[in-house]
Amino acid sequence: MTIKVGDTFPQVQLKYIPYDSTDPNACKSPQILDTKTDFAGKKVVVIGVPGAFSPTCSIQHLPAYVTKCNELKSKGVDLVVCVSGNDFFVMSAWGKSENVKNNIIMAGDANGDLGRATGLSLDLAKVGMGSVRLTRFVAIVDDGKVAHLDIEPDPTDVTVTGIDSVIAAL
Q1: How far apart are CA 16 and CA 41, in angstroms?
Q2: Which are the contacts of 56, defined by CB distance < 8 A and separation ≥ 6?
Q3: Nearest C-alpha neighbor of 62 from the set 31, 30, 98
Q4: Which residues contact 49 (CB under 8 A, 6 or more apart)?
Q5: What is the CA 103 to chain-centroid distance, rounded?
Q6: Whether pTM exceeds 0.90
Q7: DSSP 8-state secondary structure symbol assigned to residue 101
Q8: What are the CA-CA distances from residue 136 to residues 15, 51, 122, 133, 151 (Å)?
Q9: Mean predicted confidence (pLDDT) in 56-80
């Protein structure tokens, strides 16, 4: 069953590697992002994408969030999280390549836990990307509740999940 506005955002534990401004090329130990405890009392934007480094994600989707992240934060967003079905090392490398720094947490959902828990998983085995990936979505989670949710009708495009839609929803 797919989550909807008003639902409690499901609790999963994602992993990410924090950005270290003192040593940007370092590969630190992964940290846990618990969607229940770390989202509690906060306004969080969750960006779900099918794959790090994929053309749509790297050209059309993530760069606008990087560019306008401060605008989200000026509208009361405490945390911005980009999640993909990749592992946390790949997400860290993608974040470095996109100059994300500390602005967005680049979290991996390599086991598909978030995709299954939200009902937003996508089978991309036919194109060689694995059977449990996230579809392209964006959610505004306010104190653990889904306040806004947009799901792309075509996950190879960015029409409703771009930054401007999120800013308008805030």
Answers
A1: 21
A2: 50, 136, 155, 156, 157, 158
A3: 98
A4: 57, 61, 62, 82, 83, 84, 134, 136
A5: 12
A6: yes
A7: T
A8: 19, 9, 9, 9, 6
A9: 89
Number of residues assigned to the chain = 170
Question: Average model confidence (pLDDT) for the chain?
Answer: 89
Note the Cα 56 to chain centre separation in Å.
Answer: 14
Q: Which residues are marked as active site?
A: 57
Residue 103, token pair as written in the block: 């602005």
User: Residue 50's pLDDT is what?
Assistant: 86
What is the model's pLDDT at position 104? 96
Is-contact 104 65, C-beta < 8 A?
A: yes
Q: What is the pLDDT of residues 15-48, one digit of tens each?
A: 999 988 887 777 788 999 999 999 999 999 999 9
Per DSSP, 150 falls in state E
Strand intervals (E) in the chain: 13-16, 31-34, 43-49, 79-84, 105-108, 121-122, 133-134, 137-142, 145-151
- Burial of residue 108 (CB within 10 Å: 0-12, 13-18, 19+) is buried
pLDDT tens digit string along 127-158?
A: 555 557 788 899 999 999 999 999 999 877 88
